[in-house]
Design goal:
This protein is α/β, with parallel strands linked by helices. The chain folds into 2 domains: 9-249, 3-Layer(aba) Sandwich (Aspartate Aminotransferase, domain 2), CATH 3.40.640.10; 252-373, Aspartate Aminotransferase, domain 1, CATH 3.90.1150.10. Helices cover 40% and strands 12% of the residues. The protein contains 12 helices and 11 strands. Helix 1 packs across helix 8 (239-249) and helix 2 (37-50) packs across helix 8 (239-249).
């Protein structure tokens, strides 16, 4: 039985291995491994693709968030407002700096932070008076409702940092992810649409002063020219990572369109099988360009279905089994009421969606779903 992986990195590498090996060999020949020309080139390329002026390459998506929070001076007494349905780092990076995190529930259709719930929070929650930062997450590759979120943030004096770890190349209204807020963060974790051979990340921003501060923070706070140091860290992206990412960046648009095509095919197959909308809730593409870092359906008896798929050699994943407002180490003085995030955590299942996925693989996935879900 052929296994269908959730992410087929071996197949991806097989198609580009000659380009990758050449790029890596050039780095070794140069013996320039830290803060070199490939990192600079990657920063320029991704900043240009997002339509902003500056990129700051860092050691991970987590460190991209942490550096942004540090650059804005987030700390004790401050409140960071974000979604409870995201990867741990979105909230933990704020808690590491001593800030409180306030969680605002998600929209059930998009999985993203709900502007209506945010409006309620800002109008009625006592923590809103201490809120300094809003961090929307473009989950699974679909952008959050940035026009409404930006308007609400502006009305309450909140800075905005976009967590676009899963959304490189996504856009809304012709405006790219990371081009809406004060800055946006990317992750180059290997399973991401633009994944490196290890950890890596980047901050994209149109703010020259913020970019300069971030570049200092990633290099132990060193600013040069006789300026006082900042309390920074070692958040640098190495040249080997940048070299591989530059190779992959040349293929990213092609891979993204393949993912989008696979998403359309899944929707068609699931509907033809009579599974959607009654037995399977499909992900909504929504407005803008959804890049499908994950293809996430919602189903009853999710865990049993996942076991049935695994028995047939089909990999899946659960993003996320416990929403962040239920993580004891993240909970502040006030509890957050987020029933939609809790329901999503019970029902959501990510199916294979990578660009290497073949038509017969998708047909096999849907056939197993049909056998399990159809009475």
């Amino acid at each position: 039985m052929k296994r269908i992986p959730l992410v087929d990195l071996k197949a991806q590498h097989a198609a580009i291995h000659a380009e990758v090996e050449t790029a890596v060999a050039e780095v070794f020949a140069s013996q320039r491994f830290i803060l070199g020309p490939r990192g600079d080139e990657l920063e320029r390329a991704l900043a240009a693709s997002a339509g902003v002026g500056f990129g700051v390459a860092v050691s991970s998506g987590t460190d991209a968030l942490l550096a942004c929070y540090m650059a804005l001076g987030i700390g004790p007494g401050d409140v960071v407002v974000t979604t409870p349905y995201s990867f741990f780092a979105t909230a933990s990076s704020a808690r590491r700096l001593g800030a409180e995190v306030a969680f605002v529930d998600i929209e059930p259709a998009s999985f993203n932070l709900d502007p209506d719930r945010l409006e309620d929070f800002l109008a009625h929650d006592p923590r809103a008076s201490r809120a300094r930062l809003l961090v929307p997450v473009h989950l699974y590759g679909r952008m959050a409702d940035m026009p409404r979120l930006m308007a609400l943030a502006a009305g309450h004096g909140l800075a905005v940092i976009e967590d676009a770890a899963q959304a490189v190349g996504s856009s809304l209204g012709g405006r790219a992810a990371c081009a809406w807020g004060r800055a946006g963060t990317l992750s180059f974790f290997p399973s991401k649409n633009l994944g490196g051979p290890g950890d890596g990340g980047m901050v994209l921003t149109a703010d020259a002063e913020l970019a300069a501060r971030l570049k200092a923070l990633r290099h132990h706070g060193e600013r040069g020219d006789g300026q006082d140091r900042l309390l920074g860290g070692n958040f640098r992206l190495d040249e080997l990572q940048a070299a591989v990412l530059l190779v992959k960046l040349r293929h990213l648009d092609t891979w993204t369109e393949a993912r989008r095509g696979n998403a359309v095919r899944y929707v068609d197959l699931l509907r033809k099988a009579g599974l959607a909308p009654d037995l399977v809730t499909l992900p909504e593409g929504g407005p803008g360009r959804h890049v499908y870092n994950q293809f996430v359906i919602r189903v009853p008896r999710r865990d049993a279905l996942r076991a049935a798929l695994a028995h047939e050699g089909i990999d899946t994943a659960v993003y996320y089994p416990r929403p962040l407002h239920l993580e004891p180490c993240l909970v502040g003085a006030a509890a957050s009421f987020c029933p939609e995030a809790e329901r999503a955590a019970r029902e959501s299942l990510a199916l294979p969606i990578g660009p290497e996925l073949e038509v017969q693989d998708q047909e096999r996935v849907v056939a197993v779903l049909a056998r399990f879900l159809t009475p």
